[in-house]
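Sequence and structure are kept together here, with a separate record for every protein. An example record follows, reproduced without changes.
>
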Amino acid sequence: MPALVARADGSSEADAVGRVVIDRADPLVRWRFVCPNGHVDWDPTNNHIWCAACAQLHGVQPEYWELFDKKTGETVPWAAVELR
């Protein structure tokens, strides 16, 4: 019988895996971290991100709780992000 593994979605500070520092003034970093649909036009709001490009698309939810790191191919939970 395989062992059970509990997994969290990373949306809480308690289950976030490490911190990711994002300096949005650096153009290379700005293009690296995108919304799940690949847009760089996202902004922090409340406890998540809001993507202006997604908001202009019909039927697309513009609110997300994670970013996509194009360099590593992994998603980064918003709780693990530190903006500078």
